[in-house]
Amino acid sequence: MAAFPTMVAASLMVASLGMALNPFSAQAAGVAPAFAANTCGEMKSMYKSAACCGHPDSSSNSLVVPLPNHRLASTNYCANKKPVDGAAAGDNYFLNTNCTLEDGVLAALEQAGANVTKGYKGEIDAMAADRLPILTSYLAAGLCPVNVHWHLGTEHLSVGEFDETGTGPAMSYVTDDSGAGDSRRLATNARLGFRCHKYNANDPKFTKEYNWQHCKQMHVGETYEVHWPHSAAGACGTPYQYQTPFYDGVFCMDGIVKLDPLNTYTKIGVQSQVYTIVNDETYYYPDLMRGMIIDGEYGADVGKYTGSTTGTSRDNTVCSKFTPITWHVDRRCHLISASSFDKMCEDMKAQSDDMSSDTHPHGARELVKGALSPNNHGSLPIGDHHPITGLRRRAPRRRRTRRLGEDEGSEDEQEEEVCLDRKSVV
Questions:
Q1: Selection from 125, 80, 138 nearest residue 265 by Cα
Q2: Phi-psi region of 266 (alpha: psi -120 to 50; beta: other; left: phi over 0)
Q3: pLDDT, tens digit, for every residue of 170-187?
Q4: Rounded distance between C-alpha atoms, residue 198 and residue 425, angstroms
Q5: CA-closest candidate to residue 157, choices 387, 366, 382, 405
Q6: Pairing state of beta strands 63-66 and 6-9?
Q7: Contact 162, 195 (CB under 8 A)
Q8: DSSP sequence for 174-193
């Protein structure tokens, strides 16, 4: 029997390290709604795409399931756990701050997204302060994924993979009107970050639009940077593991993430992987919601450093106070099918928490300059432990049916020191 697609109608500053959060003072308590039902407009689009008008006996190729009044899991204990205050109620510790004082002295710790080109080092001496990123897999470190979201273009820069010379569709700007509270929007139009070099206007898999059913404002041929926030304080293995905004998932369980002793970069991490969307089922991956793809050249070159949360409410003048946290960033750009993203959005809409405001791309923060980036950028060499599974890694293999990725050049070229800061041209 054929399977029907289911349409469910349903810096931390050194001077502040003496503070402890037991627990963090969060936003006003409340219970977030369960996953949202499809809108009438979405159902209308499904009706039209199936050519149902005038054909009442034809198959719609969809199964409409009523949204139940009650769910087995009904109390979202992670709701509104995003902290605002630090040591004392009303201190607004975690609100954005100026990156520097009036005399130019840094007022925030390391930021993200940074230049992750192999060999690049920032200017903040995180090494001297023993702020090292998680070097094992997040799983081995006791973290689980608590959210997935993505940005229009990339926030990180990897020279030759996704940078200011990348290309994409002529018009793919989107609005970013939802999620104001999660500090990932600034204006009506989402800011476009860097792009990959894979777009080919003469190849239909980059130009033929996909009939999106679940993701919103997405475009074939465009570059997106996907983030999977992880946390040791997540509701791991429960119906409320995945949360929107992601801060609710990161800080769900009290007493784990602390400022004294400072452990944020050992308890919070983000995976990042960059894709160009294609309308080609050769590049279908069924479980994109769960984390970075690790297969062949996908996830074979991962850079690690400590940074901050991102989003367009921050730049090189205004910094995030959610720092330091670990980042694992795939330095390469990869192709992924539009259907992989749409399947991910469908999975997101089926979660106990309402993740619908993360089913569209968010704006990209401008590239963090060297003065706000740490000197602890590193790689996991071949033969060391895999960044995701924790197993020892073999040399990356290539698929027999298709070359995934482009010539990386000689080993000497890969290890060349990158000293220049790159600035977004957008």
A1: 138
A2: alpha
A3: 866 677 654 334 444 433
A4: 19
A5: 366
A6: parallel
A7: yes
A8: -B--S-GGGT--SSSBPPP-
